[in-house]
TrEMBL record, chains A, B:
Pfam families: CN_hydrolase. This is N-carbamoyl-D-amino acid hydrolase. Its EC number is 3.5.1.77. Keywords: Hydrolase. Residues 1-273 form the CN hydrolase domain. InterPro entries: Aliph_Amidase/BUP, C-N_Hydrolase, C-N_Hydrolase_sf.
Amino acid sequence: MIAVAQMGPISLNQTRQEVVERLIGLLREAARQDCELVLFPECCLTPFFPHWFIEDQREIDQYFEREMPSPVTKPLFEEARKLKIGFCLGFAEIVENRGETRRYNSSLLVERDGQIVGKHRKIHLPGHVEHRPQNPFQNLEKRYFDVGNLGFQVWNAFGGVVGMCICNDRRWAETYRVLGLQGVELVLLGYNTPMQIPEYPDLNPLVGFHNQLSMQAGAYQNGTWVLGAAKAGIEEGVEQLGESCIIAPSGEIRAVAKTNGDELIVHHCDLDETIPYKGLLNLEVNRQVKYYQLITQEPELDCDSVL
Amino acid sequence: MIAVAQMGPISLNQTRQEVVERLIGLLREAARQDCELVLFPECCLTPFFPHWFIEDQREIDQYFEREMPSPVTKPLFEEARKLKIGFCLGFAEIVENRGETRRYNSSLLVERDGQIVGKHRKIHLPGHVEHRPQNPFQNLEKRYFDVGNLGFQVWNAFGGVVGMCICNDRRWAETYRVLGLQGVELVLLGYNTPMQIPEYPDLNPLVGFHNQLSMQAGAYQNGTWVLGAAKAGIEEGVEQLGESCIIAPSGEIRAVAKTNGDELIVHHCDLDETIPYKGLLNLEVNRQVKYYQLITQEPELDCDSVL
């Protein structure tokens, strides 16, 4: 059994410690339901701070974790190990290396014995670099985060082949395919997805549809389970999509969250359900990579379009 | 206005000339509805012969066209030019070049002035090479056809950027992405899709869902219209999916066939609807090709898995 732990909003005045208590509550509920793995959302220790403009870098950096587990997150790791339940946790990560500072939108995969087995750093950063004061909220991931430098990896864990991606990564067919080519059976992802797209308001009514469509297609086209955990509800004035879900290798939605708050959805994700889909796809035989070369060519950019 | 011309089955005792008369009938109906373009299905001049095993190569070759237009197909081309309506037509193509014979599953794009502006040769051949007499029908595309050698191209036609693919090509995210990277606004495809998958019968109930899911995701993930024309109904004992459809750049289904016979579905495909999706995607800026390299690497095959 696997649990997707959707979370309601985290307010600015909630402490890290209080958030960790919420995570532990969801973890315990998952353990009571005999789950071996819990998926938490993207950046789930704080409000999603790319939604507002912060000038002071020291203030920005307060949303990041310098170590994991840290003193404040350690109780989560300890409770999970005690309950013999693994988890996937999204968080903002700051790294100092040879005098350079890098900031990533990251997730960790932790096995049932408490070992950290995998890390993903978000590859596809949506939004913009510059402050857009005319918008009702910001989407400053391109300003606050560096592009992840770990690619799309898989790990042998939880009796299968597990991959991770984060939020906007899920909209790109390349994400699932790179994982699929490594035999992924279970893709774990968290998201913070506003119900409004300030630049393209006509698309607002389709936010939920596009969320599901991308994950369903990624599942079917690679024969893998795809699990998505939302941070949902109105967080510091920004309304976010819930609809956390568990999608089978057929592309069918097997479970979906009903609320916009903290909510566990649980499903028995039988990894053998991947077999007919991977068999029919037969990726090694049926793909014709000679005709895909454009996909891995660096685009020619003019300076204007980079910003 | 664009028309998708679904076709009901073509029986073995129907002549090419009779089939061309059906195509002309659909073409005229589209002209009456002020369409500028009609999309016909895959291999729509004959029954879909890969569904049975034929030993005699001369008999196989009777399903192929040696020239286009040929004396028997010329009336279609002439009627279209007269009506100032373009079309996309799927057919089996045989080519002799320097003493070598190649056979492709092809489609042609013909502009309103009668000029042939584009050709696609199916890249992704499903099915198997060997006869499987235990199956209720065959899927011998890998036996009868060569892998297309033209890649995925686009053409400036019908006031936009038009691409083609055929049947199984539509299940691969790579197809849409390679077209999307060339700015495609309108993807035209035909299909012959059995309602049964003999090797994986558990998947039968999902044949229609998977048909739509692939095209919807391809549309949304590249901000393009996707049009699919089925050869539908029970053809020489093989039941085929209908559900010919017109899908918007949002991924929404705008029109879908209601019958399993010859049927025209018509929609005003406004190419400007691609703009917000292409804007949001911003493919040149947001893709991270460095991490997609697996997608264009040749797989390492052992001999067994090739056959």
